């Protein structure tokens, strides 16, 4: 099996003591966390997601404290079901007299207004996080019980990184592959 982890990441993973089941969350953070500044717009966030190949990130204030969490799901909820309608309309736009209506123009204006809103206006305010000292079990519980894909890790109230489901799988594979 080919590992996509760096040598440093593998060394960090091997620190975990599976017999005792204790590895602080801080040791599981293998990458810098992508975060969104609270002054960013929805468009800024979507560009950031696209550039970094992710679909969610915590929103932080100027002090580095997490104040909300934004996901593509939050954006889609804001757009509503009409997003699919607009995408289909764009696909068939070669028939302008059928599609260029006041309703479509109004819909596009609504989408544009959403894109210039501050991310905090549509983000989830109840952020799930774990402390840097949280155990492997606690991280797994945070992800599974809340049905989320990524959990933020805080140390002294500041974001130090995130742990996602793929990180958990990598931990398991590296430590059980021996």
The CATH architecture name of the largest domain reads Roll
Overall residue-averaged pLDDT value? 77
Residues in helix, %: 40-55%
Q: What is CATH's topology name of the largest domain?
A: CBS-domain
Largest sheet: 3 strands, mixed
Tell me the β content: 15-25%
- Tally of alpha and pi helices: 9
SS-based class: alpha/beta
Rg, rounded, reads 20 Å
Gross morphology: elongated
CATH superfamily of the largest domain: CBS-domain
Give the helices and strands as they follow along the chain: HHEHEEHHHHEHEEH
* CATH class (first level) name of the largest domain: Alpha Beta
In the sheet with the most strands, the strands line up as: 1-2-3
Note poorly predicted spans: 7-21, 91-95
Number of domains: 2
How far is it from the N-terminal to the C-terminal residue, by CA? 12 Å
Compute the number of strand runs.
6
Key terms for this structure?
16% strand; 3-stranded mixed beta sheet; CBS_dom_sf; CBS-domain; 178 residues; alpha/beta; 9 helices; 2 domains; CBS domain-containing protein
Q: How are the secondary structure elements laid out?
A:
Blueprint: H1 7-14, H2 25-28, E1 36-37, H3 42-52, E2 56-60, E3 66-71, H4 72-79, H5 82-91, H6 96-99, H7 102-115, E4 129-131, H8 136-145, E5 150-155, E6 158-164, H9 165-176
Parallel strand pairs: 1-2, 4-5
Antiparallel strand pairs: 2-3, 5-6
């Amino acid at each position: 099996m080919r590992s996509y982890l760096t040598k440093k990441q593998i060394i960090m993973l091997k620190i975990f003591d599976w017999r005792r089941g204790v590895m602080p969350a801080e040791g599981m953070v293998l990458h810098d966390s992508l975060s969104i500044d609270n002054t960013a717009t929805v468009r800024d966030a979507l560009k950031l997601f696209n550039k970094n190949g992710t679909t969610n990130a915590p929103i932080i204030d100027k002090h580095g404290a997490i104040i909300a969490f934004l996901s593509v799901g939050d954006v889609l909820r804001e757009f509503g079901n009409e997003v699919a309608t607009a995408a289909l309309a764009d696909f068939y736009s070669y028939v302008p007299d059928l599609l260029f209506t006041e309703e479509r123009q109004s819909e596009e204006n609504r989408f544009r207004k959403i894109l210039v809103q501050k991310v905090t206006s549509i983000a989830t305010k109840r952020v799930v996080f774990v402390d840097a000292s949280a155990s492997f079990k606690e991280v797994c519980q945070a992800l599974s019980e809340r049905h989320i894909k990524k959990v933020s890790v805080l140390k002294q109230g500041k974001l130090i990184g995130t742990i996602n489901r793929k990180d958990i799988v990598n931990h398991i594979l590296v430590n059980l592959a021996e």
